[in-house]
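Justification of resources, computational component.

The compute hours requested in this renewal are based largely on the per-chain cost of generating structure records like the one below. Each record pairs the submitted sequence with a full structure-token output. That output is archived, and it is also reused by downstream analysis tasks.
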Amino acid sequence: MAAGTAPLEGRPAPIGIIAGGGNLPLAVARAARGAGHDVFVLLVDGVSDADYSDFETGRTALTTVGRAISELRRARCRDLVVVGNFTRPDHARLEWDWGTLKIMPRLLQIRFGGDDRVNSIVSSLFEAQGFRVLPPLAVAPGLAAPAGLAAGRKPSKEEEEDIALGLSVLASLGAFDVGQALVVSHRRVLAIEAAEGTDAMIARCGELRRNGRFREAAPSGVLVKAAKPGQDLRMDLPTVGTRTVEAAVAAGLAGLALHADHVLMPDGQEMLDMATRQGLFVVTVDMPASAGPGR
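The structure output for this chain reads:
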């Protein structure tokens, strides 16, 4: 289990889930409820897009922090999970409430730096208001890619070497707050995830094949995905799902290697079954010991 992600004991106050885009927040909400927690979901206008009709909900805008805090306090939340897809707001075009204006100097800092820095700032803003921001795995440990996971065929010796190289590169990049994934084939790094996200990075590998820059016959190449060394595990844990598998198949990749207990798999068995049907292997691996644990 990742550091700082031990499951919580039952608590009388509901878990507050600030829901970004995609189905991951819904999967976390359902898992938290299944673990015995009451759940309150705070929907973000223009961002939250899953169906939360089975849960108590509130609403806020991306920049109305005062309203968000009021909604969470109204629901008696003490513990929060911030999960899902968010984009950095265009500060010049959005309206602000008084609660936001009071913390404006701190909030403006999210314009700069990598995702881990931004996530730490957001977490600190809520914690300054008396909330505790938890990793998704604290309330939904069953969504983690478990140690020892193996689906599909066994990776070849060459693919195992590619995985080791990928983990080493990701460990080295962690200090620069750069992406959580890359693709390696025949000990050559084909692509590293930056601001575009994993699926777009994988698509770039497919384009490399089509334009002749990557000539190895498909299927070949391994997607390696891991939490950054020292990453704040409360937000933006790496995630894979059926869309990741679809992107990997389209790009002609051979398999996925996931950081054990640090990568979220909201689609779970559905994703693994799809990968197996499509001829992809899926394995979990450990980061090099020298990389150090996440926070």
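The longest strand covers residues 39-44. Confidence is low (pLDDT under 50) at residues 1-6.
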